[in-house]
Amino acid sequence: MMEAVLTAFDPSVWGWLRADPISLALAASAAVSAVGSVVQGNQASAAANAQAQANDNAAKTAEAEAAVNEAAVRTQNSRLLGKQIASTGANGVTLSGSPLDFTLDSLVDAEMEALTARYQGTTQAANFRTQAGMDRYSAKTAKTNGYLGGAAALISGGADVFKSMKSR
């Protein structure tokens, strides 16, 4: 067992440690570049994931606002229709014929306004969710690119070190 440990530290086995300073600098540069690429990819991934979370939150907010706006439109239109019906009755007009048609048209318009408020919020929420999905994809791509860039830096640096050591 002791012989295996001593052999592992034999200078002939670890001869690359006696490489010229240029080869060592090339190896160090490759390692730093590889680590930098991985770190940059991870940071870009974290930023994209944070943006995806922000867009998910914005989608929830848009849906909540849509529900509030829809309810507010319905409440406001209900009050207006109530005043309209009360005014018609106060003037001695019965709710038939043209006044009834006018009231029914107002009800339809009021419902369309409420549904439009809901649709706008739902559409906005869908847009935020789509953007969140794209952000998550960007996060995965950034991380993958970081690792690929790190691997490329190590391979390129290793080739440079090999050329440097071979030319001695």
Helix and strand string, N-terminal first? Answer: HHH
* Rg, Cα atoms, Å: 35 Å
The geometry reads as rod-shaped
Question: Low-confidence spans: pLDDT under 50, at least 5 residues?
Answer: none
Structural class based on helices, strands and sheet pairing: mainly alpha
Oligomer: single chain
Mean pLDDT over all positions:
84
Q: Supply the number of helical segments.
A: 3
Question: Which range best describes the helical content: under 10%, 10-25%, 25-40%, 40-55%, 55-70% or over 70%?
Answer: over 70%
Q: Which percent band covers the strand fraction? A: under 5%
Q: Describe the largest sheet.
A: none
Number of strands: 0
Q: What is the first-to-last residue Cα distance?
A: 35 Å
Explain this structure to me?
There is one protein chain. This protein is mainly alpha-helical and 168 residues long. It has a domain at 48-134. The chain is built from 3 helices and no strands. The chain is rod-shaped. The model has no long low-confidence stretch (mean pLDDT 84).
Short description:
By secondary structure, the chain is mostly helical. It is built from three helices and no strands.
How are the SSEs placed, and which strands pair?
Elements: H1 2-8, H2 21-90, H3 98-166
